[in-house]
Write a structure and sequence with these properties.
- Strand 8, helix 6 and strand 9 form a beta-alpha-beta unit.
- Helix 3 runs parallel beside helix 5, helix 5 runs parallel beside helix 6 and helix 7 crosses helix 9.
- The two termini are about 45 Å apart.
- The protein has two domains: about 240 residues, 3-Layer(aba) Sandwich (Rossmann fold); about 100 residues, Alpha-Beta Plaits.
- It contains 13 helices and 15 strands.
- The model has no long low-confidence stretch (mean pLDDT about 90).
- With about 350 residues, the chain is of the alpha/beta class.
- Bound molecules: adenosine-5'-triphosphate (ATP).
- The site of adenosine-5'-triphosphate (ATP) has 13 residues, from strand 2 and helix 1.
């Protein structure tokens, strides 16, 4: 594997407002490969923004190291001299890391074109070349016809597209998206996410996607880290995390993103689940790839005498792989239940028992 484009190692960020200590980020290590769309998901206050702001040193870590493109921007370890890129060098590095935010941060008194041009104010290029570049960027985000309008004349999605054009003005290799879709409606959110995906695909742009919505991660990210109280609870490929989540918080995020929580709640109240007999299990089976419902269910009966009554089924496509989820009641030969569950595990089917106990 090639060296990561971003490597955060043992990052700690501690704030001490009025003598109170807040451990905003605690011992977080993350490697991002070039071309990744890396989701960082967590509820408000989890430490996501603080963590990603260390990538371009808008936030200096209390300790740990930050490497971008293999170059150490910051390094501070206990009892060792610290290292930090500063001044003009830091400014130049920052220019290669674009950022977009929830509230767009546009200049309201400037036109769309001027907002994007503003990002090029340090460029030594001639005015004509800069303007040409701005027009290319506006075309890329499909806003050429709005160049002379002001932000107040644009919708939220259009404002975010201006912000994206501005963030790309200095040809960054990395784009940090900090809750960029949180203020947008679902349809506009999808449009912005797919624009990020397009930029990622066509320009190999690496995206750090900070969000409290697993839905956004599911839509475009290939990797994800789940944060809570300043720590990363788990991280991995989106497919692995969705099919084999270990932390309760991750399960909660996934259930919301896939609408499974609603399905589970509704089905939990059905007679079949309310009147679950001894030895029956109400379970969620999740699988990915080639495993399909039918052979799985048939095998359970043929080999173990276990009947799986399907109450709900859903298939999603994640990273071009099918991920299936079934809510079932398993019943039958109780002494074979353990073996049946082992069989499912051997087929890489993850089983989450929602109600009932094994005999
Ligand atoms: N400059 C600061 N001074 C003091 N405390 C801070 C500062 N910045 C962040 N914090 C605290 O650090 C913790 C993590 O905040 P952070 O903004 O990184 O979380 P987040 O996951 O990005 O949430 P949100 O989406 O709400 O911003 C919070 O408790 C926050 O109040």
């Amino acid at each position: 594997m090639t060296a990561p484009i971003i490597s955060l190692k043992n990052i700690d960020v501690t704030f001490t407002p009025k003598g109170k200590t807040i451990h905003a980020v605690q011992d977080v290590s993350i490697d991002v490969q070039k071309g990744d769309i890396y989701g960082i998901v967590g509820y408000s206050g989890a430490g996501k923004s603080t963590l990603v702001r260390t990538v371009n040193l808008l936030q200096e870590p209390t300790s740990g190291s930050v490497l971008v493109n293999g170059e150490t921007l910051f390094d501070k370890q206990e009892n060792q001299p610290s290292h930090k890129v500063k001044g003009q060098e830091l400014k130049e590095k920052r220019r290669k890391i674009g950022m977009i935010f929830q509230h767009f941060n546009l200049l309201n008194e400037r036109t769309v074109e001027e907002n994007v041009l503003f990002a090029l104010e340090n460029s030594k290029e001639k005015e004509g070349v800069k303007k040409e570049k701005v027009h290319e960027l506006l075309e890329l985000v499909d806003l050429s016809d709005r160049a002379n309008q002001y932000p107040s004349q644009l919708s939220g999605g259009q404002k975010q597209r201006v912000a994206i054009a501005r963030a790309l003005a200095n040809d960054p290799e990395i784009l940090i998206s900090d809750e960029a879709t949180s203020a947008l409606d679902p349809k506009t959110t999808r449009q912005i996410l797919f624009l990020l995906k397009k930029l990622n695909k066509e320009y190999n742009l690496t995206v750090l996607l900070i969000t409290h919505e697993m839905e956004a991660v599911k839509a475009i990210a290939n990797k994800v880290a789940v944060m809570q109280n300043g720590r990363v609870l788990e991280k991995g490929s989106t497919l692995d995390i969705f099919t084999k989540p270990s932390a309760e918080l991750t399960k909660e995020f996934i259930a919301t993103a896939t609408n499974q929580d609603q399905a589970i709640e509704a089905i939990s109240q059905s007679d079949a689940v309310s009147d679950l007999a001894a030895g029956q299990l109400f379970a969620q089976l999740t699988y990915s790839g080639n495993a399909t419902n039918e052979p799985l269910i048939t095998s359970l009966y043929q080999h173990f005498g276990i009947v799986a009554n399907i109450l709900y089924g859903n298939v999603e496509v994640l990273q071009e792989t099918e991920v299936g989820s079934l809510l079932v009641i398993l019943s039958g030969d109780t002494k074979n239940m353990d073996a049946a569950l082992d069989f499912l595990a051997a087929q890489s089917v993850s089983v989450n028992i929602l109600k009932g106990e094994q005999a």
